[in-house]
């Protein structure tokens, strides 16, 4: 078994993504999570380039990491001065990071056009920069920027740059597909040539995803002899991103018959949780169709597929989802078959036969609702409630009953924003509650009034919060067109233990929101009572 070193650059290269801006606190949180996953290197940033990056190295030194080494990133010294006078190299040394990674130009075109120096002078720059760092930092990595483009145009210079870095003391030579334009076959051939020319060198690969080939390129380089892969969690990074470690790591560990190991034993099952965590800290919506760790990676919608995975999950799943900490999901949509119902019921502890009348009736109801626009694939909490009610199972009851609600919007000429007010009348546990609330818009006012009416009876609702609110206009029909079209509202809610999504559909956006709101509240109350019953049963 060959051990592949994983070098994460989410905090530096990933932070260069257009929609990512990590604070110091964010960087520390992510670094600790990556260390817990068992990654070998965490590149913290470019000291001196920003106050956040400079502060990171001082702050992270207060933590005792168990697996990862912290790397500081920078460049070779300016050709116009010496390595000893270079502020960038001085900042790398001052960061006190145990690893320094510097990039150098290995494409002759960049040396001539960007730096405007001779190749001979720049080879001296590479050598002097690495040598100075090696005197002051325990480990030095040389990122051969634009290596594959340089190798294609002038292999002799690209190889000469690597040799200079190695002779000066670089511990690892990282071949960079900086423009993300190389193919796996070319990268494999170039990596093999480097291994042939420099058999004593430790080789790494750093690929960008501009052609959607970063993972494939990295795998090709590993197969050709690279022993380090640089990448980012979820593939975040400049332009189209970097090698996605959430895909690369499970491919190496699961698809090569045990030939490669990237993480400590048992850590691969943390992958989805780490992917989700980094997305949340970076304030990015998780990509549901991301391989291995995405919410849809093991989701089954078509009835034929579901019927098959119920018999043998490997028929439509290339690995066990639990290996990467994910789960199988069966979706209920207009494409669902009875196998979908049976599988979904099994998740909730109900064992049904697909020929039972209740299964046929529930499928018919689901398909009818789906035709109206209910997206049950995205709103599993609403599905669970529908299923439990249809089966008449204990736990899902009418926690409250609507008597009436009214939403008022008022705006006068010159007003900054409209005034939103909602009144709600409910029957709750035999009592009638009438409440009113102002809000930031009509749905917020309605939500506040609903909660206000329920808090006295169900104080645990104070733990619940709205995470996301989405409205989509559905295709117009002859009956409902334009502003009178059907709309679908998806509400994501959460408490300290879980998140759940509910759905509502109507040509009236307030009514659609109300449907999703009451399902969300009912689901919270149902789950809490169910957990309470389980605890009481265990105590008895």
Strand order of the largest sheet: 2-3-4-5-6-7-8-9
Q: Helix segment count?
A: 17
CATH fold category name of the largest domain: TIM Barrel
Strand content: 15-25%
Give a short summary of the structure.
With 540 residues, this protein is of the alpha/beta class.
Describe this structure as you would to a colleague.
The mean pLDDT is 91. Helix 16 runs parallel beside helix 17. The strands form five sheets. Strands 2-3-4-5-6-7-8-9 form an eight-stranded parallel β-barrel, surrounded by nine helices. A three-stranded antiparallel beta sheet has the order 13-14-15, covered by helices on one side. By secondary structure, it is of the alpha/beta class. The protein folds into four domains: 163 residues, TIM Barrel, CATH 3.20.20; 74 residues, no CATH class; 100 residues, 2-Layer Sandwich (Double Stranded RNA Binding Domain), CATH 3.30.160.340; 58 residues, Double Stranded RNA Binding Domain.
Q: Layout of SSEs?
A:
Blueprint: E1 2-3, E2 5-8, H1 24-37, E3 41-45, H2 51-60, E4 69-75, H3 87-94, E5 99-105, H4 108-115, H5 119-136, E6 139-145, H6 147-153, H7 155-167, E7 172-177, H8 184-197, E8 203-207, H9 214-223, E9 228-231, H10 245-254, E10 260-261, H11 271-281, E11 299-300, H12 303-311, E12 329-330, H13 338-347, H14 357-372, H15 380-391, E13 401-410, E14 419-428, E15 431-439, H16 442-454, E16 465-473, E17 487-494, E18 499-506, H17 509-539
Parallel strand pairs: 1-10, 2-3, 2-9, 3-4, 4-5, 5-6, 6-7, 7-8, 8-9, 11-12
Antiparallel strand pairs: 13-14, 14-15, 16-17, 17-18
Helix pairs in contact: 1-2, 1-11, 5-7, 6-7, 8-9, 9-10, 12-13, 16-17
């Amino acid at each position: 078994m060959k051990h592949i070193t994983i070098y994460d650059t989410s905090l530096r290269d990933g932070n260069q993504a257009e929609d990512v801006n990590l604070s110091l606190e964010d960087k520390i949180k992510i670094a600790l999570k990556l260390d817990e996953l068992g990654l070998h290197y965490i590149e913290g940033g470019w000291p001196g380039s920003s106050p956040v990056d400079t502060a990171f190295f001082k702050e992270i030194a207060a933590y005792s990491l168990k697996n990862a080494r912290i790397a500081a990133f920078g460049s070779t010294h300016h050709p116009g001065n010496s390595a000893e006078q270079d502020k960038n190299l001085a900042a790398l040394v001052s960061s006190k990071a145990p690893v320094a990674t510097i990039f150098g130009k290995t494409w002759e075109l960049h040396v001539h056009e960007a730096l405007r120096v001779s190749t001979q002078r720049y080879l001296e720059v590479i050598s002097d920069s690495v040598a100075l760092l090696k005197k002051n930092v325990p480990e030095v990595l040389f990122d051969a920027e634009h290596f594959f483009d340089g190798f294609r145009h002038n292999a002799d210079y690209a190889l000469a740059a690597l040799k200079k870095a190695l002779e000066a003391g670089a511990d690892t030579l990282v071949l960079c597909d900086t423009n993300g334009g190389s193919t796996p076959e070319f990268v494999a051939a170039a990596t093999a040539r480097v291994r042939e020319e420099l058999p004593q060198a430790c080789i790494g690969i750093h690929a960008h995803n501009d052609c959607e080939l970063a993972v494939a390129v990295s795998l090709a380089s590993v197969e050709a002899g690279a022993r380090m892969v640089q990448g980012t969690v979820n593939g975040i990074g400049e332009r189209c991103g970097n090698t996605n470690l959430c895909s690369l790591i499970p491919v190496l560990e699961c698809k090569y018959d045990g030939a490669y190991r990237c993480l400590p034993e048992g850590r691969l099952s943390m992958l989805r949780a780490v992917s989700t965590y980094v997305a949340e800290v970076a304030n990015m919506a998780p990509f549901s169709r991301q391989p291995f760790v995405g919410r849809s990676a093991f989701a089954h919608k078509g009835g034929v597929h579901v019927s098959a995975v119920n018999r043998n999950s490997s028929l439509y799943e290339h690995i066990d989802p639990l290996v990467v900490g994910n789960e199988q999901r069966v979706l209920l949509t207009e494409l669902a078959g009875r196998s979908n119902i049976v599988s979904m019921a099994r998740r909730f502890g109900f064992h049904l036969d697909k020929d039972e009348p209740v299964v046929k009736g529930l499928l018919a109801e689901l398909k009818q609702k789906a035709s109206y626009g209910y997206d049950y694939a995205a709103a599993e909490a609403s599905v669970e409630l529908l299923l439990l009610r249809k089966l008449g199972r204990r736990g899902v009851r009418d926690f409250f009953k609507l008597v009436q609600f009214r939403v008022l919007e008022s705006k006068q000429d010159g007003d900054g924003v409209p005034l939103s007010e909602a009144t709600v009348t409910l029957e709750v546990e035999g009592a009638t509650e009438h409440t009113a609330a102002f809000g930031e818009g009509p749905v917020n006012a309605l939500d506040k009034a609903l909660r206000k009416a329920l808090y006295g009876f169900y104080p645990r609702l104070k733990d619940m919060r709205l995470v996301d609110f989405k409205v989509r206009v559905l295709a117009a029909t002859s009956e409902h067109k334009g502003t009178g079209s059907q709309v679908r509202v998806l509400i994501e809610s959460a408490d300290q233990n879980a998140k759940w999504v509910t759905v509502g559909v109507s040509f009236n956006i307030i009514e659609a929101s109300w449907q999703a709101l009451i399902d969300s509240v009912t689901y919270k109350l149902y789950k809490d009572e169910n957990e309470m019953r389980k605890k009481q049963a265990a105590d008895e």
